[in-house]
Amino acid sequence: MLAKRIIPCLDIKDGQTVKGVNFVNLRQAGDPVDLARAYSEQGADELVFLDITASFEGRKTFAQLVRRIAENISIPFTVGGGIHELADVARLLEAGADKVSINSAALRHPDLIDDIASHFGSQVCVLAVDARRMEDRWRCFLNGGRVETDRELFSWTKEAQERGAGEVLFTSMEHDGVKTGYANEALATLSDELSIPVIASGGAGKKEHFRDAFLYGKADAALAASVFHFGEIKIPDLKSYLCAQGIPVRS
Question: Mean per-residue pLDDT for 147-153?
């Protein structure tokens, strides 16, 4: 079993880190540069930065803030939000991002996945999916969970993989921020059907939830926000716990 990754996520609104429940009721969570530096020092495997209102507000991600964060960390760095074309990707990579995460733009223009993969390599392209279980299917949403689409989670991620996406970051909207665990059944299906890494997002509340995402959800990485931002779980403690559970993690 390959080493599993622990990934803190900085949800950014108006230049500040925020966190909500089910994508609403946002509250301040700290300065993004300070948090990023702390997570890098604590042993996080990667860092994700999501400008959560860029697509909804029709603007670009703040490259200056991306650059400030990149200068303060020594771990791989993924940036998402407001990416619509190759020039946006180039601008963020130049600012210090290692990968970009695309969601709304990919749903609207799937060819963007092909373009990013062909110009920069599949390893740069992370497909982010915000999905909610609607009756008997998982439906994908865009614009930070505001707009429902007719895309279905499993068929969409499979298409994205075929187009060149290098990873899938799956957030269960109904699990987001409620701290009752990840959507492990859907995660396991994704992991079985895809050959690219799957990152679990939405639902972490205690160390056992990370364990379950890896054991039952078969995830390659687990992303979380509030439990890290507010000191409920320390990354070194989490890694020690997972190691004791027989789950390989990077030291």
Answer: 92
